[in-house]
Design brief:
Blueprint: H1 14-26, H2 31-48
Helix pairs in contact: 1-2
């Protein structure tokens, strides 16, 4: 069973958002999917150190 998703609202710098959108498109993912991927990887690295 997949974990439930929750909707949130965030404020993000415009220049950062544009870069994230480009990376998501290059990876053939939605913006939401890409942000989830990046956050999961960051948490994994942070907890590993």
């Amino acid at each position: 069973m997949k974990p439930l998703k929750e909707k949130i609202s965030i404020t993000i710098d415009g220049d950062l958002l544009e870069k994230i959108k480009k990376y998501a498109e290059q990876d053939d993912r939605s913006l939401s999917q890409y942000i989830n991927l990046v956050l999961k990887e960051h948490i994994k690295q942070t907890e590993h150190n």
